[in-house]
Design a protein that fits this description.
The protein has 128 residues and is mostly helical. It has 7 helices and no strands.
């Protein structure tokens, strides 16, 4: 894991990248391999379309993720996978619930994640 100061500088530089003139952006991307550059360009185009405040939220979220311990990151990624497996209507219900509930009191802890949907026996028996 990188030292805290280095991780913070990395996030700050990432945010500053979007303020660079096009020529400087190209120069920066030129240091990557062709494959890395193509992948990065796709990501950057999507990121660039976000409003500045949304980009700032994304960078702050990445900063939080990078400051997690290895165990916390593993748990986060596991929860993200569970979230992706939920049907859209369940995700929508959770988003609504979270935005309408008041914040938890200090020291209360985190609420439990919902259980994963069970696969029908016909799919389980078929080896899927």
């Amino acid at each position: 894991m990188l030292p805290l100061a280095k991780r913070q500088r990395m996030c700050e530089r990432f945010e500053q990248f979007f303020e660079l003139p096009s020529r400087e952006k190209e120069k920066t991307l030129g240091a990557l391999s062709d494959t890395e550059r193509r992948e990065m360009e796709v990501t950057l185009k999507a990121f660039e379309k976000l409003p500045p405040e949304q980009r700032h939220i994304c960078v702050n979220s990445f900063r939080k993720f990078s400051n997690m311990t290895a165990e916390e990151r593993a748990q986060f990624l596991k929860n993200a996978e569970r979230w992706k497996e939920m049907p859209p209507e369940d995700r929508r219900a959770w988003r609504t619930l979270i935005t309408k509930l008041p914040p938890l009191p200090p020291g209360f802890g985190l609420p439990p994640m919902p259980p994963l949907p069970r696969r029908p026996a016909s799919l389980t028996n078929a080896g899927l």
